[in-house]
Design a protein that fits this description.
about 230 residues, alpha/beta, Rossmann fold, Arc Repressor Mutant, subunit A, 2 domains, 5-stranded parallel β-sheet, 4-stranded antiparallel β-sheet, 12 strands, about 20% strand, elongated
């Protein structure tokens, strides 16, 4: 049974989330302060954290930084009343995996939790490394080793790569990448993904203008092709 820690200072919200997720088969714990959240993180060893940013004793970003200092890939979903674009961007900069604004839909929250747990489990199942062509990704160290160089990867780059790798041979849209890999809403400028793909081609393709791995699919989006 997967365990979820809910760090939320509004008791009725924390209890409502706990009740609904436990009906879905999860074991849930709640903490109403940042310090209690950190304590329960260590004692209960959850598989995922749902984190509010506006806590009475600590800013949620401090909690997020602490989690990321211990584990770069542990799934964290921010659930906050601070829902402006700048707030969401800040959350992703410091390493959250998904971001939902209050008020929120419980069914959507359940789906996002399920997706994050699946992604984390799938990543662990496939190990710390992924190789294609003459390229090697080290997920734990957050580096890519190519034929000519070693590259430090950002959290967003890693999340997009993991999503593309898990959908190898399957065309995916820019919107799917934004939502499933970065946690953005669909109204975010989807051309952001184009910039990441250009970067990946420079990193990993022998000829970026004629990519073998990171292919454009006309009228759809992109596809990672492992068969090349």
């Amino acid at each position: 049974m997967k365990k979820i820690l809910i760090i939320e200072d509004e008791f009725h919200i924390a209890d409502g989330i706990k009740l609904n997720l436990e009906l879905c088969g999860y074991k849930c714990f709640t903490a109403n302060t940042g310090n209690d959240g950190l304590k329960k993180l260590n004692t209960h060893k959850p598989d995922l954290v749902i984190l509010d940013l506006m806590l009475p004793d600590k800013d949620g970003v401090e909690i997020l930084k602490k989690i990321r200092s211990d584990d770069r890939f542990f799934p964290v979903l921010i659930l906050s009343a601070r829902g402006e674009v700048e707030d969401r961007k800040l959350g992703f900069i410091f390493g959250c995996d998904d971001y939902m604004s209050k008020p929120f839909d419980l069914e959507e929250l359940e789906l996002r939790v399920k997706r994050l747990l699946f992604r984390y489990e799938d990543s662990n199942e496939h190990g710390e490394f992924f190789e294609f062509g003459r390229n090697r990704i080290d997920f734990r160290k957050r580096i890519a080793i190519t034929e000519n160089q070693e590259i430090s990867l950002t959290e967003q780059e890693l999340n997009i790569l993991k999503y593309l790798f898990s959908n190898s041979g399957k065309p995916v849209t820019r919107e799917e990448i934004l939502i499933n890999a970065l946690g953005y809403e669909v109204d975010v400028q989807s051309r952001t993904i184009d910039n990441f793909i250009v970067r990946f081609r420079k990193y990993f393709e022998k000829n970026p203008k004629k990519p073998k791995f990171f292919k454009s699919i006309r009228s759809v989006g992109y596809m990672f092709d492992l068969n090349e």
